Amino acid sequence: MPGVAVALALAATVALVAYASSADRRAVSGQQPVLVYLARSRIATGTSGEDARNRGLIERAALPRRAVAAGAVRSLEQLGGRVAAVDIVPGEQLLTARWVGRGEASGRRLLPIPDGHQAVSIALDPTRQVSGFVTPGDRVSVVVSLSRPKGDRSQRTTRFLLQDVQGGGRVGQGRSQNVATVTLAVAPRDVERVVFAAENGSLYLSLLPPGQRPVPSRGRTIDNEF
């Protein structure tokens, strides 16, 4: 019996060590460095990839794999014959979607806006813009949190301001976690709503999957949150 107990204890120890080792490997795999390119200095709209490289506006850096944005430039050959479609801020990861052919730049078609809409930009930190996953052409909803008068006091209310609008953005990925901008294409009547909400409340974006429709909502307050 003592031998059996020792064997069971040894087996349990081996299993525990194997589990811990597996967990360590999983944790390390998410931290494995990936080489990407960042903007060392501001890259102005229309700057070619070759010019940005020759002027030292680009630097290579190792980031944890989970911090690498979708579409990150992994080779400067990807920028061959292309120019920056928007201003790129220092510390921002270079994304292939933000570099276009020279013909597109000369035609000033860098920000397509649907007919009957206007473009308006808002400043949000990465957390409020879905950790930087909002990219040009995505459909998003805008959530606002505002204080509203209620009797002799004010009450915080959170609700959808706009649903299913075309979004696009620039994210402070990489070394910078500062506030960045997201541009929305909205109906003219909604431009004032977005600006008012940005000036007087707190905004969040939600990212919509393809085909999702707007959902009815009465908003949330402390009275109906629970």
Oligomer: single chain
**Distance separating the two termini:** 56 Å
Average pLDDT score: 81
- The tally of strands reads 9
Kindly provide the radius of gyration, computed on alpha-carbon positions and rounded to a whole number of angstroms: 24 Å
**Number of continuous helical runs:** 4
Q: Look at the helices and sheets and give the structural class.
A: alpha+beta
Largest sheet: 5 strands, antiparallel
Shape: elongated
* Percent in helix: 10-25%
Largest sheet, order of strands side by side? 5-8-7-6-9
Strand content: 25-35%
Write the H/E string, N to C.
HEHEEEHEEEEHE
Q: Return residue spans where pLDDT drops below 50 for at least 5 consecutive residues.
A: 4-10, 171-176
**Count of domain modules:** 2
Can you characterise this structure?
With 226 residues, this protein is α+β, with helices and mostly antiparallel strands. The protein has two domains: 33-106, Antifreeze-like/N-acetylneuraminic acid synthase C-terminal domain (Type Iii Antifreeze Protein Isoform Hplc 12), CATH 3.90.1210.10; 118-207, no CATH class. Helices cover 24% and strands 31% of the residues. It contains four helices and nine strands; from the N terminus they run H-E-H-E-E-E-H-E-E-E-E-H-E. It has helices at 2-31, 49-54, 102-106, 188-200, and strands spanning 33-39, 58-64, 82-84, 99-101, 118-124, 139-150, 153-169, 180-186, 202-207. Strands 5-8-7-6-9 form a five-stranded antiparallel β-sheet, covered by helices on one side. A two-stranded antiparallel ribbon has the order 1-2. The chain has a two-stranded antiparallel sheet with strand order 3-4. A hairpin with a 2-residue loop joins strand 6 and strand 7 (153-169). The longest helix has 30 residues, at 2-31. It starts with a helix and ends in a 19-residue tail after the last strand. 22% of the residues are buried.
